[in-house]
Amino acid sequence: MKPFSWLMSSLGLLCSSWCAVANVPAVPIYEIKSQETFIQAPLDHQIYFYSRNTELGDLQVIDAKGNKLPFRIAEIAVESQNIQREIPAVFFPVAPNTSEELLRSLGSTSIQVNSEKVQVEIIESSIAPAPKIDTVDFYLIDLKTFHRNSSNSSGLTLKALKLGLPQEDNSYQTWSVSGSNDLRQWTSLSTSSLVQLRKEGHALIQDKIRLNLEYQDFGYLKLRCEANCSSTNLSSITIIEDSKFHFFPADMRWTLAGEASSKKVVKLDENDRWQPSTAYEFIRDDVAPIENFAIDLGEQLYGDRIRLLARNRSQDAWQLLYQGIWFNTKLGQEWHSSKAQPLYGNYRQFRLELLNPIQTQPQLVFYTKPKWVQFIGNDSSPYSLVVSILQEAESQTRILDSLLNSRFLNGQSPGWVNHQWVFLNPPKPESISSLSWRSLVFWGVLTLAVVLLALLSIKLFRQMNVKAE
Asked: CB–CB of 386/30 below 8 Å?
């Protein structure tokens, strides 16, 4: 009975310690007060001072009663928006029997160097006034200029052409549109009827030709009146552009201050001849994933070589992350620096070495993809975001995904409502390697239980050997 008592005592001690640690209320870090059901709120860099997991797998969302809510942590999505714009088109009236060479010259561009101002000017001959033409055979539209003026080519569509027709009370004309890239072979695109009818203060005007043409398909368009062409002198042609704009969320950005290093030179190997004039060392106490880094030199002119080293612990050897030229200069009233560089590896300690001395205190700037928390609320607001020793974020994410994919929404997508977390500013852990007292209690009791079970196993094994003898 004694071994059995030891076994039950060990298991009971383990279970009681697990329950005690799991049920201890966690310290809330953020809070949201809302009556909405589907809530999403972005995270800031502060969360990485409290979480011990780079992927934030130790977070939980709880309500005012301490109940765990289904949630997930995801990168903030890119927003897309369809925007319609009207752009004046570059067009030319073309007389009958015009040669192909003349057509090509209408849309050509030339580059001239102004030696007095030491600058390059791009002069578009297509903008110059076209010669007066008595009879217009068709209008030629230069789409290359349209390509250059388009601010965003993602999902760009030439939706329609809007014609500046002569003002007439009764006009009913038929226009055709063709496209070409070489001004020789033309492809028919559309034929439309344009109408201007006015009577007793009422008007019916249709002055658009619908195309739905991808911008890169053709370089030129031919616009010709096919029927009832008594007056075809167009005052303007407007391109109606339908484009999809993508709004990318700004990266999460934070800075890390350092101190001047007493060790001026670090040799990576025996062939390392690098001799910096000054060096700074940085230690961070967060677990945020780093994707890019930059260097903030303040208002200090710099344009020479630098080197960035990194390691995880003080006893580790330094590893080279970046070596190259870094610029920091003032243009007008603003300071500009080299663009951020990718950083591979989530290191804790960094060393910045500069070839030339500086008068300011440099800072490392880090970037990563922004994230938000999405969760389903209930009637027990406020909701809190807490850090737990139990890694339950993945299981709560599966619960949320199953709810969103089930009949819970009746086939509809959730209408996420944007909120902002209120930071409660709880005490930070002493260091990234420190453990809370709950973690120490749990692991201490777990170790004791394992030791008791091991001793019990040894004793049972010895008793079995004695009986066998």
From this structure: no
Of 231, 224, 164, nearest to 189 (Cα)? 224
Q: Is residue 59 part of a domain?
A: yes
3-class SS of residue 397: helix
Q: What is the pTM of this model?
A: 0.65
Number of domains in the chain: 3
| pLDDT tens, per residue, the chain with 469 residues | 455 555 555 555 555 544 544 444 577 899 999 999 999 999 999 999 999 889 999 999 999 999 999 999 999 988 877 888 888 888 888 887 666 666 555 554 433 444 444 343 434 444 444 455 667 888 998 887 665 545 444 556 788 899 988 877 688 889 999 998 888 889 999 899 888 888 877 888 888 999 888 767 788 899 998 888 877 788 889 988 877 777 888 899 999 999 999 888 888 877 888 888 899 999 999 999 999 999 999 999 999 999 999 999 999 999 999 999 999 999 999 999 999 999 988 899 999 999 999 999 999 999 999 999 999 999 999 999 999 877 777 888 888 888 887 766 666 778 899 999 999 999 887 644 444 555 556 666 667 777 777 777 777 767 776 666 5
Range(s) of the domain holding residue 176: 82-247
- Domain containing residue 211: CATH number: 2.60.120
Instruction: Return the residue matching tokens 């290093």.
Output: 261
DSSP letters, 354-393, are ESS--SS--EEEEEE--EEEEEE--SS--EEEEE-SS--H
186 and 230 in a single domain? The answer is yes
- Look up the CATH number of the domain holding residue 258: 2.60.120.260
Are residues 178 and 66 part of one domain?
Answer: no
Name beta bridge partners: 304: 326
d(CA 366, CA 284): 11
* C-alpha neighbours within 13 Å on the C-beta side of residue 189: 24
Return the residue matching tokens 């303007």: 236
Answer yes or no: do 330 and 355 share one domain: yes
Determine the distance from the C-alpha atom of residue 42 to the mean position of all C-alpha atoms in its chain, rounded to a whole number. 13
**Treating both helix axes as pointing N-terminal to C-terminal, what angle do 2-23 and 437-468 enclose, rounded to 10 degrees?**
160
